[in-house]
Amino acid sequence: MMWAAIICGLVFYKLIKRFFYDDDILDVEGSDHSSALFSVADRVQKLYGGNVYVGLRIPDADTSSRQSIDIVLVKKEEVVVISVKNYSGILTVNGDGTWACEKTSSHKVERHPNPVAEARKQASILESYLEQRGVALPEGYISCKVVLPNPKLCTIAASSLPSEVVTHDEWVQMKPGPKNMFSGWVKNPFRAGKKDMQESIQQNLNFVLSTAPIWDRLVLIYLASFNASKSDFFTNKINCLACRLELKANKYVLGEFLEFKGKQEDLQALSQIRRSKVERITVQKTSMFGLAPSRLQVLYALRDYRTEGASEAEWKEVTVRSSTEIIFQLENSSKVRKFKLSSVISLTLSA
Which of 12, 74, 207, 267 could serve as a FRET partner for 120 with CA atoms 20 to 30 Å apart? Predict the structure, then answer.
């Protein structure tokens, strides 16, 4: 009976994975960074409040290109550019400021440009962009941080890291506080006694950032693994392997939406979903415990440049085959990936 349960569970796992999930989702280059980025952004907002902007692509006038910025935190007292480095392994800082991460399993060394210098440059580019759009910040108002959220990163001589770096240990120990929530992290010595920003400036700042270019973002759902050890099977701690399936939702991928791919009639139904007209789509499907759906409902919100967000009346709906795919180019990469609509929760399009 025990082996029968194991076999049945494995068959069930394969069926669920076959009909509901895309194998590519499990190993999407850049998705771990994107998911870490949104995780950090969510915790930053819970800890410090304010407005948080994720995945910006700020025009750099000097290079005529766009600079990717992971997170911008806006508070009355501060604007903080946050760079998220989801590194793993053993971290060492070289004499020239570059970083090296040695993988503990393969001993392969990955070398990275100085993240602090990169974050400072991003803050400077953002400040110039804001000034070009009519928002001149007081001197010293904008700062930067580099967050290392991965618990699998071991930092040698962490105390010698620049003050802008927030290690994993420091990150998990951060707590909100009514008076000193920014103490030791988001703190600016150049504005002693200056606590409030003019309301008009702050409104303009949030408006500019909310309308700034961003990466398109996919939110995916995927099947991670069974959450059961071998000892569970042999000690009969579980009766049904399927009961131990672990679902992982909200896997983020940043990049650029290119097109839909599928049957001609489905492409015709989706032809109204264009960047200039639509800002967001969501995909509705049946429960994973029901039969695998052959068709999916795609809801899309029409873009309204006059207001923030979309009202209920602005949502439209089409129905297409679940085999329809989204063609997506990954952030800062030449790689193009395909994702089945059945694995997509939502897609947000930059204007």
Answer: 207
Query: Using CA atoms, how far apart are residues 273 and 257, in angstroms rounded to an integer?
Result: 11
The span from the CA of 48 to the CA of 75, in Å, is: 8
Per-residue pLDDT tens over the stretch 205-236: 999 999 999 999 999 876 544 444 444 433 34
Rounded to two decimals, what is the model's pTM? 0.78
- Give, as one character, the DSSP assignment of residue 233: H
- Nearest partner of 316 among 259, 262, 269, judged by Cα: 269
Sign of torsion over alpha carbons 289, 293, 298, 299: negative
Max Cα–Cα distance, the chain, nearest Å: 72
Tokens of 335: 């790689």
Q: Which of 94, 90, 113 is nearest to 102 (CA)?
A: 90
CA 88 to CA 99: how far, in whole Å? 12
Residue whose C-alpha is closest to residue 226's, from 207, 245, 252, 198: 245
Query: For residues 55 and 38, is the Cβ–Cβ distance under 8 A?
Result: no
Percent of the chain with pLDDT over 70: 72
Determine which helix (DSSP H) or strand (DSSP E) holds 84, and give its type and residue range.
Answer: strand 78-84
- 25, 220 Cβ separation under 8 angstroms: yes
Rounded CA-CA distance 25/253 in Å is 9
Q: What is the pLDDT of residue 25?
A: 41
Name the one residue in this structure whose structure tokens are 């802008």. Answer: 164
**Beta-bridge partner residues of 318:** 298
